[in-house]
Amino acid sequence: MSVDEATTAPPSLRQRRRAAATQEIVEAAQHHLTEHGPAALSLRAVARSLGMTVQALYHYFPSRDALVTALVTKAYDDLADAVQAAVDTPDDPGLPRLVVAAEGYRRWGIANPERFQLLYGTPLRDYAAPTDGPTTQATRRMSAIFEREMFEGFTTEQLAAPDTTALSPELRAFLEQLPHYGQGHLPAPATALLMSAWGHLHGLVALEVFGHTDFLGGHQAELFRMAMRNLLADIHRRIT
């Protein structure tokens, strides 16, 4: 068998069975998370729901952290999929693409509060995501989407000189060395705008998902759209 044939060979029966079992465990853990919240997640509870022993589950996930990493990665990927799908097929083509992306983010968070809490709520005790692992890769994908929709059409020169409060040399140097996941290098002033905008966008969604803006009733979507339009207009005014 040639190298090409070996690399393109279909997965074996054993590999397919393992992949199916792994997916079933992740789905069971996700269901348990939805029912009981992130803090109650345990391998024993997930194994019991599948009629497995904990020892059998360890063949697929050797620790709670490994299972949490799989859940966090899948949640980030599903969230990024929802944001990208919103941009690809907008309900209102007249809306700016960043606003559409933000609304896709908001809808996913509202529809999946427990998974949103896993990503952005109180960190699970004693859990640490693997350095530069699958959770990091998943967050980079999300960052790239919002960076693209916020700054598409601007030149590097424009992004290097927005109308912002002067950055300290220390902050500028720190922002310059941060990795970026969009197209090309993002100058420090644009990175500062991106981080500020992300805090505004995410903060509004988190307040709503965690019930802090329930007093607004059915007006939350309209107020969010207004805030995102204003945010984008302010960013573009500062750049141009």
CATH class of the largest domain: Mainly Alpha
Helix content: 55-70%
β-strand percent reads under 5%
Number of domains: 2
| Unreliable spans | none
CATH homologous superfamily grouping of the largest domain:
Tetracycline Repressor, domain 2
Q: Structural class, from helix and strand content?
A: mainly alpha
Oligomer: single chain
Mean model confidence by pLDDT? 89
> Alpha-carbon distance between the termini?
59 Å
Summarize the main sheet. none
Global Rg? 21 Å
Number of strands: 0
Overall description:
With 240 residues, the protein is mainly α. The protein has two domains: 1-62, Orthogonal Bundle (Arc Repressor Mutant, subunit A); 65-239, Orthogonal Bundle (Tetracycline Repressor, domain 2). The protein has helices at 3-7, 13-36, 43-49, 54-57, 64-88, 97-111, 113-120, 134-151, 156-159, 169-176, 188-209, 220-239. Helix 6 runs parallel beside helix 11 (188-209), helix 10 (169-176) packs across helix 11 (188-209) and helix 11 packs antiparallel against helix 12 (220-239). The longest helix is centred in the first third of the chain and has 25 residues, at 64-88. The radius of gyration is 21 Å and the shape is globular. The mean pLDDT is 89.
